[in-house]
């Protein structure tokens, strides 16, 4: 019985090796993704010549969110504001709750000053998991979509197009 199992296992392994080595019309690297070049080849990559907003912070127009509570796009030039670290965050010089109103900038929402893991508000600023703004917020470029999309957001109210209400609705539908 043990000998039969060993022989069957050996035949299965050989069959697997043969099956994997036969080209059965496999997908080519060049057809993966939107770049249309091999995923193994970085030298033939051509990046688009996208233009980002050159409006100064405070002079730009808000961009409607993609869906309710989506991270808003950055509508202004970010030159000299990036890289962001825990010790250096130029975004907060205008968008922190204690400064935003006085400079006419939108303030970070309540969700950024609240520790969602431990269910407690931060009294001294931004939650440490939220300091890296460009992890979610990105500058808007004049790029055309690479894939057609018919998605239409359904906002619960007009204010939700430009303002977060995540902390008010985070437990909606949870018992």
Count of individual beta strands: 2
Mean pLDDT: 86
- What gap, in angstroms, lies between the N and C termini? 55 Å
- Residue runs with pLDDT of under 50 for 5 or more positions: none
Largest sheet: 2 strands, antiparallel
Order of helices and strands: HHHEEH
What integer value in Å does the Rg equal? 25 Å
Helix content range: 10-25%
Beta-strand share of residues: under 5%
The chain-level structural class is mainly alpha
Shape: extended
Number of helices: 4
Placed side by side, the strands forming the largest sheet appear as 1-2
Give the assembly state of these chains.
single chain
Verbal overview:
- The protein is mostly helical.
- Helix content is 18%, strand content 2%.
- It has helices spanning 2-21, 92-95, 100-103, 166-169, and strands spanning 114-115, 120-121.
- Strands 1-2 form a two-stranded antiparallel sheet.
- The mean pLDDT is 86.
Summarize this structure briefly.
The chain is mainly alpha-helical and 175 residues long.
């Amino acid at each position: 019985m043990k000998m039969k199992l060993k022989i069957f296992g050996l035949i299965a392994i050989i069959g697997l090796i043969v099956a994997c080595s036969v080209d059965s019309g496999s997908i080519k690297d060049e057809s993966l993704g939107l770049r249309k070049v091999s995923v193994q080849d970085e030298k033939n990559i051509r990046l688009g010549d996208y233009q980002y907003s050159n409006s100064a912070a405070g002079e730009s127009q808000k961009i409607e969110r993609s869906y309710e509570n989506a991270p808003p796009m950055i509508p202004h030039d970010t030159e000299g504001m990036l890289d962001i670290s825990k010790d250096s965050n130029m975004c907060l010089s205008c968008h922190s709750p204690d400064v935003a109103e006085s400079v006419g900038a939108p303030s970070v929402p309540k969700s950024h000053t609240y520790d969602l893991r431990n269910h407690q508000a931060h009294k001294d600023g931004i939650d440490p998991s939220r300091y890296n703004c460009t992890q979610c917020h990105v500058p808007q470029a004049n790029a055309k979509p690479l894939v057609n999309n018919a998605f239409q957001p359904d906002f619960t109210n007009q204010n939700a197009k430009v303002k977060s209400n995540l902390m008010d609705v985070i437990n909606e539908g949870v018992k």
